[in-house]
Amino acid sequence: MELLAGALNASVALLAGAWNPPTRAHLELARAALGWARRAVFVLPRAFPHKPLEGASFEQRAAWIRDLASGHPLFAAAVSSGGLFLEMAREARALGAQRVLHVCGSDAAARVLGWDYGGMESIERQLEEYELLVAPRPLPFTPPPRLRARIHTLIVPALLDGISSTEVRRRIREGEPWRHLVPDAIADPVERACR
Questions:
Q1: Which stretches of 51-155 are DSSP H helices?
Q2: How many structural domains does the chain have?
Q3: What is the pLDDT of residue 159?
């Protein structure tokens, strides 16, 4: 894991994503995660296990999360060599994190728990190395009983419903209002990248 802004400490909440582009919802997730960890880290994986890199370049996305992290003393930004939560958790631990929580929506949590990891550790073993902080998206997530001790609900404002990177890109393409969905600090570069 390569840090782009900020630093890690003993307790981190990793917000991994494609960041195409970051939204105000991402910022709210990071703020909410600070109730569980001492640092919220925006993480851009070099490879995604479930989708190709399309749209904004890797460098643009890295710049966006670096700019977001620079705006709050408890935020950080990093690039990960791995694309799976287990790989990112191990990279964060190698930099000194002792407790690692992955922040995700209920849709991503279901994908993580149901993923075919092939020869890797089972999800039960993986959750010994990290925990999940799951935000309702759009519905609450109910983890299997055997995993409940390592999966927590992240309470976020209801106003985040409907805010997504996909919606931002759609609005930009169709000439609809969109700036209210992204952080002010990155609105101009997002507009240039997504047109």
A1: 58-70, 85-94, 106-114, 123-126
A2: 1
A3: 66
